[in-house]
Amino acid sequence: MTNDLQRRVFQHKQHEIDGFTKEYDVDRLVHWETFYDVRNAIDREKQLKGWRREKKIGLIEKSNPQWKDLSREWYESRGPSTRPAKAAGLAQDDSGQSFLQKDESKCRPRSEVVTLLFLRRKRH
Q: What global pTM score does this model have?
């Protein structure tokens, strides 16, 4: 969970944070969700961590069937402080309703909290 998505993803890509992404050399952001209330973000992160791998894969494949790195273009020519022009992810309003967000200007409040999901794709 973070309140600065680009900074946190950059840290994961550089393996500056101990844990799953560093241990398994994972560097693709395949899913993220934005919450306006930190308590909702904490609850969702706990929920995702409790899910079995198959359920996480289903979530990813619903919103990102090609498993594209959703942050790939963010760092190609500039550093982690650069915000992307447009971002896509799942946002949650204060009532708990989820919706797909496409335009960053409409859904990036100052108090944003983001739950990230990095998952290693099995090779066939």
A: 0.66
For tokens 């992810």, the residue is 89
CB crowding 93-111: b at 16 or more within 10 Å, else e: eeeeeeeebeebeebeeee
How many CB atoms are located within 10 Å of the residue 23 CB? 10
Q: What would the pLDDT profile of 2-51 be if each residue is shown by its tens digit? A: 888 889 889 988 889 898 888 888 888 888 888 888 888 889 989 998 99
Beta bridge partners of 34: 91, 114
Cβ pair 8, 2 in contact under 8 A: yes
